[in-house]
Please model this.
Amino acid sequence: MSRAKGNLAEDKACEFLFENGFAVVERNFYSRFGEIDIIAIKDEVLHFIEVKSGLNYESAIQNITPKKLSRLIKTGYVYMKKNKLDVDFVYDAITVTPRKTEIIENITI
Model:
């Protein structure tokens, strides 16, 4: 996926989050382990969000591999430590397709 296409999907994801009561804290947080696309907060819970786009749900979600998830988790811990945070947090995914944007909460289970 091109960076421009990724940015467009992330913009749509941010709009979706805003419409659903989330506040975006940061975008594209990098660590040596990887990147978190969006960090948002809702109801005092921090959400580390991976954004995936595709022509349909299946093509979008299949790109979250165990390796990608591991990097996301490690990068989340780096963010928490760097910012000295002690809050509840969860790892989510947002799929962006031409017809629908949806959140899949707690993808680590």
In short: The two ends are 27 Å apart (CA to CA). The longest helix spans residues 3-19. Helices lie at 3-19, 57-61, 66-82. Residues 29 and 79 are 8 Å apart (CA to CA).
